[in-house]
């Protein structure tokens, strides 16, 4: 039982108590009289306002080891819907037009300029020889011109292969870096693509060579049949048409299954054989989705090209006889201008088509890897940690699964008993 202090003793409050030999304890500011935060008699304590940090947590603004989510890039870091896959290649042009469209335009210009540089001088030479040749020598000159033209066309074909392989590599690099929120310039894209140019060239040459062999075989059948009677020729043409349909179906199947080879070559650093096997496995279970996307985008690009180019050509063809019915200089000038405008439009649309189709393959590759191998988790981890850990390659090929090590002393299960 506690009694009252003796009379004459000084009453010491709890807040004025001090340890022996110590200084008087200071009253906390929050418990000071008339303080807004001090508990008032008869008033229950109030909860902290919403949004305030919990008790005991560091003040706002203190780094807690948390990093913000990845910045949005070209593709969301999750498995993609069909609409996203369909329109993502068109976003490539809008997001980085200078590097992507510039690369496609350069490839188209190389192809056109190389073809003109080879064919125009050769045709002028052939025409001059034909005009100066006698009747007996005309057939020999024409035969030599055909053979020489076929040989000369190998030059633009080779240049187109090299340029097309570069464009595939450039678009794969652009889509992969854009997914991580990066935007590379023209030179940086071509520099990275050049590291894998030889496997890309080998793959492109394989495709082109297989196509040329098939076409040459079909043409040879028709030519040999033409040397016989007309009935044989008709039968050969029908057989070639049927064989062409079968070859087209097989080519569509193989082309879809192997469509991811350029992406695997560039991003995973794989050889041609490994890239073919990887593409085949990634498209397992997603054949119709991949085939439908490639077919639909190709159809859209073809319709767009026809809508843009054909009206210009048609207008020029109609205006020429209307303005100059006699067919003199005005009609020729109109037709020449129409031809030039049509070529320019075809060049621009060809560049857009090449860029979009190459980018589409890279988008499908990333989507399939996110669906089947969890690439989206690896990309998120890379984006969140690339400023704090040594840079790694998030697109590297997944390590092959290894069977678990046997436990010492454990017996192997009986294969005959489930």
Describe this structure in words.
This protein has 418 residues and is mainly alpha-helical. The protein has one domain. The chain contains twelve helices and no strands. Helix 1 crosses helix 2, helix 4 (154-179) packs across helix 5 and helix 4 (154-179) packs across helix 6 (197-226).
Most strands sheet: none
| H/I helix tally | 12
What is the 3D form? globular
Gap from first CA to last CA:
78 Å
Indicate the structural class: mainly alpha
Portion of residues in beta strands equals under 5%
**Overall number of structural domains:** 1
Elements, N to C (H/E): HHHHHHHHHHHH
Radius of gyration: 37 Å
Strand tally, please?
A: 0
Roughly what percent helix? Answer: 55-70%
Would you identify the regions where 5 or more consecutive residues have pLDDT less than 50? 1-39, 53-60, 62-69
Global mean pLDDT:
77
Region (Disordered): 1-68, 388-418
Biased composition (Pro residues): 36-68
Transmembrane segments: 105-128, 140-167, 200-227, 233-254, 286-309, 329-362
Domain Glycerophosphoryl diester phosphodiesterase membrane: 246-373
Entry keywords:
disordered N terminus; mainly alpha; globular; single chain; 0% strand; 65% helix; 418 residues
Give the helices and strands, then pairings.
Layout: H1 82-95, H2 97-132, H3 135-152, H4 154-179, H5 186-194, H6 197-226, H7 230-257, H8 261-268, H9 272-282, H10 287-323, H11 329-373, H12 375-385
Biased composition (Low complexity): 18-35, 408-418
Biased composition (Pro residues): 36-68
Pfam family, one: GPDPase_memb
